[in-house]
Each structure stands twice: as C-alpha cells, then as structure tokens.
Amino acid sequence: MSELHHMSVLDVIAAFRSRELSPVEYLTHLTSRIAAHDGEINAVMDVMDEPARQAAQAAAEVYARADADTPLPALLGVPLLVKEQHNVAGCSATRGSRVLAGQTAPADHPVVARLREAGAIPFARTTTPEFSCATFTQTAAWGTTRNPFNPDCTPGGSSGGSGAAVAAGYGPLATASDIAGSTRIPAAFGGLPGFKTPYGRTPGVVPLNTDWYRGDHVLARTVADTAYATNIIVGPHAGDHATIAPAHVLPTAFAGAAGVAGMRIAVSRDLGCYDVDPEVAAGLDTVVAALRGAGAELVEIDLALSLADVTDASSAHYGHLIAQNMTRMCGGDLDLLEPYSKRFVEYTRDFAERISLLEAADLETKVQAQIADAMAGFDALLTPTSAIGALEADNAYLEALERPAGPLDFYWQAHMTIPFNIANRCPVMAVPSGIGPTGVPTSVQIVGHPFADDSVFTVAAAVEELLPFPRSPLM
Question: How many Å apart are CA 274 and CA 396, to the nearest integer?
Fold first, then answer.
C-alpha cells in the first residue's frame, strides 16, 4: 500500500472494502499529518475532531459487516476537507472576515450535503481569502497559507487552503469553487487536476448561485477521483433553480494515453493577449509533445482574444454582482474589509459604473464567439492555466503587477482562467505540466465545447498517464 497521505479516493475506498485500512486509522493518520505540517503550511482553519472520529467509527463498523457485494455509500468513511466558504452546519461561517464575526452556518452547503450523504466525513475546514475574492490565500483571521511545494509562494486562491491541503497530503478530497479560476489556480500551483464544471452542473446558494461565472467543485489528486466525486455533487437541486437536468454522469475509468489517439486538439500559447512566463510555455510544450506522441493531432491556433475585452466584461460583471454583495455585507464601510478586498471592490466597481451589465453581456458574447469559432473542428483546446508561474505568499498585490511585457493594472490579469468563466458553459480541467524554477508546478487548461465534459476528462487522463502528476516535497 502506498503512503497513506498520497492515496487516491478510489484506493482508500478499496482499502476500506478489503479491510486493509480502517476509516478510524486513516482519519487518525490525516489529523496527525495536519498537526505535523500545518504550522508551516497553514491550510486548515479548524479540525472537527470528535464528530469526525465518531463518523469514522460508524463507517468502520459498516465495513466490518459488509461483504464484497454489499452496496455501500459511494464515499463511505472518506475524510473530506471543506473550503470555509462552503457551510458546515453548526460551524462558524465567517468567510475570513471580521464583517461576519460570530456567524454560524445553519445548514450544510448543498455540495457538502451531497458529499456527506454519500458517506464522506467532513473533518477539517480549509482557509480562503476574505469572501474568496483573491487568487492568494491570506487573512488577518487565519494568517497566510503557503504552498507545500515552496512555502515562500502562495498555493493560489480562492480555494488555496483546499489545494494546499490536498497537495500536502492532509486528505484525498476537498471542496472548491470557481468564479475566476478559484479551483483551477490552486490546482495549477499545487500540482493537481482541477475541474471547472459548466454553469448549472453543481448547486450553489443565494444570492451568488445566479452568478453565471460560478461553479462549486472538488479538488482531488487524480482525474478518476475528480470524476468520481464530481458525479456526486452534480445535478438539479431544489434550492438552486439554476441547476440543470439531467445530472451528467462522468466515466471513472479511462483509456489513458490511448484515449486521445485520433483527437484533434487546438493549442493556444497565450490566447492572443497574455504575457506567458517561460516555464509555463515550456510546460505547455511538454504536454503538446506528449499528446502528439500518443496519436493526437495538435494544431496551433491564433485565438486573438483582447485582454481589454476580457477585463472589461469580467470586471464589470464582478462589480455589478460580487462587489455589490460585499459592499452590502460590510454595510458600505469598505474599511472593514481586508485591504485586498477593498481594492477588489473599488477596482471592479469602477468598471460597473461605466459599463452596464447589458454592455458587459455584449462583451461576454464577443469573447464566447471567439472561443467557439477557434474551437470549431477540434475536440478540445489546450492553453496555459496561469501565465505567471507563481505568486508570492505574504503579498496582497495592491499595486500594479510588473510583467516583462509591461505592468498589469490588476494581478488577476496574469491568470488565463477568466475567459472560460466568461465562456461559462465550457468544461475546463487544469492539469500539471511540469515544475517551474521556484519549485511550484506549472499547468495547462483543457477546454471542451459547451457541456462536453467527457472530452476534457479523456484528454486529462491521457496527460496524467503520460506525465505523472507531481507530489509535494513534504515527507
């Protein structure tokens, strides 16, 4: 059996079934690992020790009575890390903000509820930036979360605690979310696969469940685990009328490298408008060569997006929706927010004051059409996940971000994720493409046609077999 902290979800379930491993033993190992390493990484904001231990004991008793053919819940006994943005009934729900100090969750978030109903055991909650509005993870309440590949760097955000925790071996599965790359960026910086579902696949909560950039997801260590857990959280939900039917069922066994033979895959190095770091470009080249060697046809295209269009559309969108919601939550007093949250609100609000939501929608339609036209005749699109190879920990990025091609007004412009929140029905999977000079992994995105989730997983599984995903250096 591999080291317990590097096991996949499916391997853990198999070990529980065969009784090689007890849910109690596994949970104990993970909580011990958190105690040993989280003083440095700081990915966990609390541990729900006693209720988790009771649930693990109950799961162990079920496994002890079951034979090989006994139907069991899909995730019975699997420890679950929960992004603090996702409510856990009875636990604090502060979103890392003093604005919500003392707030307690009345019920599980729908994604947490579905995973719990499938037998998963929420046992620890992971850090986020305040109101999940940054692509790094730090708050006055919880401190700075660090990347297990290089503690001087951030694991990304806003699901940075979840990404760092899975990469560090704290658990095999965590919840995540994504309105601007918040699942894919931590996946990229943590050497993990990270899947952004098409809008409507997974349920959210009011008011931002109606934000068509949004999705709630999972982070795991393997493509198969990602598919397995995603199947549990997708589908219509009575509390979210934006969810669609029927629930799409992903395969959880893949052909690996053989699956891409004959596929046509478009390749865009920079989407036409991003300043890509050399290590990121080299990672893309490595993936292209591997897929080509497996029999796929890789064709470089000129997508020719405009960074101004992407920024105007998305910043106005965030200004009209998320910034207004944050302003309401702090009673209009932005000084109650973290400095980076205040800057996010002010920056996006400026766009919203000069670009109406209707005008932003027109720009979104333009970007969507450019992506659709570029992908015509291809099975998928391959492009970097983040143009910048790493971001520093302990840096709130309040000023313009210096880049080789010139400064960026807002550091989010260094990530290549937002175009596919704009093209919100496209499934996207971030997968590792190598390791950069800082020790932080690099990553590519695999983009599918609207709702063509299976094609994305087929390519991702091929990359995983051809270029095995890295492990953090934590022992």
Answer: 21
